[in-house]
UniProtKB/TrEMBL annotation:
InterPro entries: ACT-like_dom_sf, ACT_dom, Preph_deHydtase, Preph_deHydtase_CS. GO terms for molecular function: prephenate dehydratase activity. It comes from Halobellus clavatus. The keyword Iron does not apply. It holds the Pfam family ACT. This is Prephenate dehydratase. Residues 183-260 form the ACT domain. GO terms for biological process: L-phenylalanine biosynthetic process. One of its GO terms (cellular component) is cytoplasm. Pathway: Amino-acid biosynthesis.
Amino acid sequence: MQVVTLGPEGTYSHRAARAVDEDVAFRESVSAIVAAVDNGEFERGVVPIENSIEGSVTETLDAIADADIAVTEEIVTPIRHALLAQSGNFDTVASHSQALAQCRSYLEREYPDATLEPVASTAKGVEYAREDPTVAGIGHPDNADDDLTVVAEDIQDRSSNSTRFFVVAPAAERDEGGGKSTVVVYPNANYPGLLLELLEAFAERDINLSRIESRPSGNRLGDYLFHIDFEAGLYEDRATEALADVEAIAADGWVKRLGSYDRRHVVD
Ligand SMILES: O=C(O)C(=O)C[C@]1(C(=O)O)C=C[C@@H](O)C=C1
């Protein structure tokens, strides 16, 4: 089964995707990956959802809210960045905006004059560094070779840096089994206590929320979607009851159940 993820070869997404299948295809953006699963081109996609330093990957949140797909698994992997260049003589550091942000303190301390250039992925930045001696990339140290050396290792601002990925599949594969579930809620309403009511639906049934994130609906200023991850499977009565309450609260909007899933750790 071919799995599609963020390329080119050598991204952290690629490393996570290999845990799903060795046969990996690449796209240049998260939106393109989600679209390629939504339109049936691929049976699985792997997309970054959240980082322990930088928080949510908003492009992913927006893409999964718009698409008709399932989340079938989450993959958590440590992120240990290396600075890669042809020599120590560079004036630009190119990487994914998440990676640049995860190394912000290191870069400000060691290379305060360097130009930081956000590119589509860490591996894209590494490609630039391989082509241009004035550019360094930030990425996994395995991207080093004879032409590109590791100038510094473990440059992320916190050693505990880790990223969580979603494995996405066609909507028909939404499952109710698993220890966690993700839903996206668009209440299409705005009144005092709306969010409190949404949270109470889970709290009253002793369901722990592991993440709640609001994103602009795009319809009007101050109008939001809520991405909610909770620690229960959709097969559980308490989850069914909580979501019945949530659906009543969002009667003028919608609730998208992306599915239940378990966590896998990828450590190399
Ligand atoms: O550019 C990559 O290598 C990616 O897989 C993307 C991504 C991200 O979007 O968060 C994945 C893991 C790291 O947090 C840095 C970048």
